[in-house]
Specification:
single chain; 353 residues; 4 helices
């Protein structure tokens, strides 16, 4: 048996403990939308060929089995909409082929923190941690490692659906309160959903590196400060939801940001600028223009340059006022006459030569 799909039934009871003893040929186990309860079997044997595990929408509880690390071929793990009570399973970051991780609507809790794995979740394209009790800062280390959401060249890729010839994986994506079901998942589709948790602090600049991201949902948290300017690098972004936070300041302009509407920023009273009706005041200085960024992207700091212009202006005005008040200051006249005299002497010498 290669595929076992018992989804969308009214099956109930506890999962058998031998469930993890997959045959070497079993690739897909789909138990979505049933009435199974109890814990997920904790023993998954080494050497299995399981590619998809979908336990979404049951009543499963307990911990995420640590033995899932034995599933080296695992590409899709969907544990969403259960009663699992655990901390973030950081050890899953060692699975080399994991593309989809869905933990939404459970009882996961605590800070996500750091991983001992050097580059965790490098193949991950869809991560959904929404509607849990995660807290602390957004997981910057993990966000930096999402290499599969960076620099995707679709022109050089063979566009195909995730899964095999006889079975395609599906996924649910929630944006702005609406659930959208993808019956098939394109291998170019990428999304990050960390909404409806207790994350706080600033949004990491590194999210701007995920330039092949299609969807980003950070709504309903306690995020503060400004929207990073690096977000303008998200040229492929189609779905954005930053609503119901405590963000403030200027909304980045240009490229994809000109396509998002007010509801992407709803209930962030400190935000200003297009597309919101609230205009930015003089205290809410917008980011430097793209022209300025292009001139100084070699590492030169535009702020230092503007400070130099400011200092030069002040010195120039001060000298002008001094000359206006005192007529012709002798020290200034002496310096100018001396320079003129030097130039005359140099010109005479060059003429004689």
């Amino acid at each position: 048996m290669v595929i076992l799909d018992l989804s969308h039934n009214n099956l109930s009871g506890m999962l058998p403990h031998c469930l993890g003893n997959f045959s070497e040929d079993l690739s897909v186990l789909n138990l979505r939308r049933n009435q199974f309860h109890g814990i997920i079997p904790q023993i998954f044997l080494n050497g299995n060929s399981i590619r998809t595990l979908d336990f979404n929408s049951n009543q499963l509880e307990g911990l995420v089995p640590r033995s899932l690390i034995m599933c080296r071929e695992l590409e899709v793990l969907d544990l969403g909409n259960n009663k699992i009570n655990d901390t973030f399973p950081h050890w899953l970051g060692a699975l080399p082929k994991l593309h989809v991780l869905v933990l939404r609507s459970n009882q996961f809790h605590g800070q996500i923190g750091f991983s001992k794995i050097k580059s965790p979740f490098m193949s991950l394209r869809i991560i959904d941690l929404a509607h849990n009790d995660f807290e602390g800062d957004l997981p910057e280390m993990y966000l930096r490692s999402l290499k599969a959401t960076m620099n995707i060249d679709e022109g050089k890729m063979t566009t195909e659906y995730m899964g095999g010839a006889y079975y395609q994986d599906s996924s649910m994506v929630t944006i702005k309160g609406l659930e959208m079901k993808f019956e098939k998942i394109l291998n170019t589709f990428t999304t990050v959903d960390l909404s409806s948790n207790k994350f706080q602090g600033e949004i990491p600049e590194c999210i701007g590196n995920l330039n092949s991201l299609r969807g980003l949902n950070l709504s309903h948290n306690d995020l503060r400060e400004h929207i990073p300017l690096s977000f303008r690098n998200l040229k492929m972004l189609e779905l954005l939801d930053l609503s119901s936070n405590k963000l403030s300041g200027f909304i980045p302009q240009g490229k994809q940001f000109d396509t998002f509407e007010n509801d992407s920023y709803y209930k962030n009273t400190g935000l200003c600028g297009f597309p919101l009706s609230k205009r930015c005041t003089t205290d809410e200085i917008p980011y430097p223009s793209q022209e300025i960024e292009a001139k100084f992207e070699s590492g030169f700091d535009w702020k230092i340059t503007l400070m130099g212009y400011g200092c030069g202006l002040v010195i120039g005005l001060s000298l002008g006022c001094l000359i206006f008040v005192s007529g012709k200051p002798e020290w200034l006249v002496w310096i100018i006459d001396k320079n003129i005299h030097k130039k005359i002497v140099r010109n005479k010498r060059s003429t004689r030569g």
